[in-house]
Amino acid sequence: MTRGRKPPAWRRYLRFWGSNIAEDVDDELDFHIEMRTREYIASGLTPDAARAAALHRVGQFSNAREQCLVIGEERERMMRQANLLDSFRTDIKFAARSFRRSPGWTAVALLTIALGVGATTAVFSVVDGLLIHPMSYPGADRVYVVRHDVPMGTNAHVYGPLKQEHLTAWRSARSLDGVEGYSRRDMTLAMGGEPRVAQAVAIDTSFLSFAGVRPLVGRNFATSDVVAGAPRVVLLSERYWRREFGAAHDVVGKVVHTDGQSATIIGVVPATLRLPDLEITPADVWVPRRSDGDQRLRGVLVRLRLGIAAATAEIELDSLTARAAIGSSEPAGSRMRLLRPGDTLGFRRTLVMLSAAVALLLLVACANVAHLLLARAAARERELAVRHALGAGRARLVRQLLTESLFLMVVGGAAAVAVGGGGLRLVASLRPAKLSQLSQFSVDQNLLKVALLLTLGTGLVVGLLVALRTVRRGIGEALRASTGSGGRDGRRFRSALVVTEIALSATLLVGALLLVHGVVNLQNAELGFNAHRLYGVSFPYRGEEFARELVERGRLVTGAQGVTVAGSVPPNGGFLLAAFETPAQRGKPSGATTISINTVAENYFSVLGISLLGGHTFDAQSAASNEVVINETFARQLFPTEAGTPVGKRFRMAGNGTDVEPSPWYVVVAVARDAVMHGLLNDGVEPTLYFPLGGGPEGRRTTLIFRGDDDPRFAERLRLFAAEIRTGTTLPTITNVEQELSDSIAEPRFSMRVLSAFAVLAVVLAAIGLYGVISYTVTRRTREIGIRMTLGATRATIARLVVADGLRLSIIGVALGLLGAVAATRLIQNALYGVQRGDPWSFTLGAVALLAISAAACLVPILRATAVDPAVAVRAE
User: Fold this and answer.
1) Do 164 and 89 share a structural domain?
2) Strand, coil or helix: what is 188?
């Protein structure tokens, strides 16, 4: 190996900017060869022979060099890691000491992070559990819910029933890897005590395998359990097992009474077994779908084969349905649709809206944290400049500032986990009863992962932005400046952050006010009847005589000021899908439509307070004469060209195109005022058809309706009355109509509360940010204020100067926020309930509220500015 003149071996120790492993190894090897060559020359060998002997002594030079390079690189890597870890540990200690020196600033920053990240974490946990990963079934991404889509005129659809015949036909589908049906009902369950209502789900023996679960205790259903006449068996849910049986493992084999019949407990299924009906109360017990039982299906689940698209499976399901001639009398255009479980969620739009709202809140929090870090960095300009002058490079300063940001975010993230867990518990306590799935979320690994991801991501983005901006400018100028180098650019950037916060807050606030206005409209909606002190007690249907007997016994209840009977009581009315024709349209029926129906007694309208616009109520001959009462909306739909009240007109239900057989001709004896029959969330009042007792389609329930007095004990009297006359072991259902109507708007009320809470948090954070900017500006302009006051400016003038700065930022932010709200309200336009997206009341109130809060945020800086002593302020410079 021939090399030129080498530098001295000790030069590698003078390298300031780091070692060069290759050159160091070459120097080391050359040194050893040179020393060995000198030894051989001293012993009498020629220089060439001595060098050859030295190389021979060293051996294969390239192998030795490669081994030395590997050893050197490994040592260098370990040293770099150790130095980096030591430097990081030093930065963490320095950050902790620095934050302890400013406890007020640190508390505000940590609170901002905890609120923003905590709220986001809680909402994302719910969205993930209900929309993104609602079920943990095997191949969950290929599991779909089947819906029978039935067209109802222009742009209107309803979901038709699914039957056992559908299930049987679809099991041969080549595009499916599994098909499972289930049904659901209330069940009375007792074990030596008072019967209790339990939520029961009927499934096939293969359902647990489809869901990928095994019983925690006991066994699954067997084929022998589902044949006609087999002994009844049940599986308990884990939640019900722990609550009612104390998680006792000897529960298997015990006998319970379900709907008055004995059933044996054969096992317990884990809590992870969930149905796609995410809005219903989780099942308490699971029972087998027996061949001698009710074969109606609540839903059908399918799993697609690998590589099969949902559209392909839909075509095959439609083909199999048509081939089996199932539902041949259904309206044209009926088809099967495959939906993801999250798509069937009734309050899906609410979750999407809350996700967007919490994203805005997180942006507000990030802007606030960025502003706080910028203000802190501006106050430390001289410190950073001194460190830079002493040898710390810009990269080193960026790393220090980024470490401080990440440290702050991690500590705030720990607090955010507590806030997120508390938020989930608060949501569970405030949720409406119909949103029972919201009570199943708590602090778990997913929550911790989301919180960690959000805090680290936010810390990196915000911290890097602030660090780069802080060291971008010539920080050496801070040593020559008397007040730091914040400059006009820094003030503009901080002002831009505050404007962003106010704009996002304005968007959230306007959205919340729109929802508030919508909920107020719902609460003040015209019902068409008097719901005050109105109750319904429902029994299984047992004919007209039983209904009239109930009325006689109900009149004996103390405090009953009016008693009547009907098939249902609002807002739990029944539906009918049918096409209608009048004598003038005979043979040309209207398209199939959905109407509300009810079978009512003669005094139904007077007890509920529904006025008749024309005609008379039913009498004893109404059923035999095919007399009916219709509401205003149905009258306009049936007889659009008729002038006046259509009393005496005739119509009938047509059989072609629907599942309803042709009916006799009905005679309209009265037109009732429109009344809400199905809750307050429906768009307008549905067409409604009232039948007399014994003259309409046979229902499943008979409802005794009471108008009670003002005694708060009346509801308890109804419970005692219902318990006395219950049929068998089935408990009558008691409905407080006023409470039920209030519960029907529980979802929008809940959305309003959550969005309002987010809006309030965003406004508070924006106010804090505005306060910080104005306060910082006042501090930086202390000398200017002193000079102005020396030249004759009054305290009122100074106050107007400070307020003008704050209101200028606020007006810009509010204007941008209102423009954003116009676009963002598209997300909530379906939840506004009679309120226009551009509702001037909401936009004006939101703008005024934000401007007032902004003015309040300027109050403390105003007091500080007007308290400046001109002489002291000028001498300080």
Assistant:
1) no
2) strand
Using an 8 Å Cβ cutoff, are 756 and 842 in contact? Answer: no
> What is the C-alpha to C-alpha distance for residues 405 and 409, in angstroms, rounded to an integer?
6
Indicate if 35 and 156 belong to the same structural domain: no
The residue type found at 813 is G
Asked if residue 436 belongs to a domain, the reply is yes
Domain boundary among 275, 309, 344: 344
Q: What is the rounded distance in angstroms from the CA atom of residue 540 to the CA atom of residue 108?
A: 60
Using alpha carbons, list the distances in angstroms from residue 537 to 189, 197, 707, 758.
20, 16, 12, 40
pLDDT tens for 439-465 read: 666 666 666 777 777 787 877 887 777
Tell me the per-residue pLDDT of 583-641, one tens digit each, with 9 for 90 and over.
Answer: 877 767 666 677 889 999 999 999 999 999 888 999 988 988 999 999 998 998 888 87
- Checking 130-136 for CB contacts under 8 A at 24+ apart, the result is 130/278, 130/342, 130/345, 130/351, 130/437, 131/342, 131/345, 131/348, 131/351, 132/342, 134/274, 134/276, 134/278, 134/341, 134/342, 134/345, 135/211, 135/274, 135/276, 135/341, 136/212, 136/272, 136/274
- Residues 556 and 621 grouped into a single domain: yes
Residues 275 and 251: beta-carbon distance below 8 Å: no
What 3-state class would DSSP assign to 153? Answer: coil
Q: Exposure pattern of 576-586 as b/e (b: 16+ CB <10 Å)? A: bbbbbbbeeee
What are 23-79's pLDDT values in tens digits?
776 677 777 778 878 887 888 788 888 878 777 776 655 666 677 777 777 777 777
Q: Are residues 327 and 364 in the same domain?
A: no
- The two structure tokens encoding residue 648: 């005496």
pLDDT of residue 490: 61
Distance of CA 181 to the CA centre of its chain: 27
Sign, CA dihedral 833-836-842-846, equals positive
Residue 218 parent element (H or E)? strand 217-218
Domain boundary among 311, 344, 377: 344
CA dist 651 → 170, 498, 578, 674, 806 (Å)? 39, 66, 12, 19, 69
Q: Are residues 551 and 474 in the same domain?
A: no
Q: Do both 365 and 337 map to the same domain?
A: no
Q: pLDDT band for position 853 (50/70/90)? A: confident
State the average pLDDT over residues 730-734: 74
Same domain, 258 and 314: yes
How many angstroms separate the Cα of 540 from the Cα of each of 537, 704, 729, 779?
10, 11, 11, 77
Q: What share of the chain is helix, strand, coil (3-state, %, to 5)?
A: 55, 15, 30
The CA R_g of the chain, rounded to the nearest whole Å, is 39
In a domain, 732, yes or no: no
Domain count, the chain: 4
Q: What is the pLDDT of residues 744-757, one digit of tens each?
A: 787 788 878 888 88
The pTM is what? 0.71
CA distance 244 to 259: 18
Which parts of 238-326 fold into alpha helices (H)?
Answer: 238-245, 310-323
Residue 857 contacts residue 771 (beta carbons within 8 Å): yes
The secondary element (H helix, E strand) that includes residue 551 is: helix 544-554
Which tokens is 221 given?
């259903």
Residue 711: alpha-carbon gap to chain centroid:
40
The answer to the question of residue 127 being in a domain is: no
Return the higher-pLDDT residue of 137 and 732. Answer: 137
Residue 116 placed within a domain:
no
Cis peptide bond prior to 571, omega within 30° of 0 = yes
Rounded distance between C-alpha atoms, residue 566 and residue 705, angstroms: 7
Same domain, 601 and 687: yes
Query: Does the pLDDT of residue 691 top 90, yes or no?
Result: yes
Looking at the predicted structure, is the pLDDT value of residue 159 above 80?
no
State yes or no: pLDDT of 128 exceeds 60. Answer: yes
Q: Tell me which residue range forms the domain holding 210.
A: 140-344
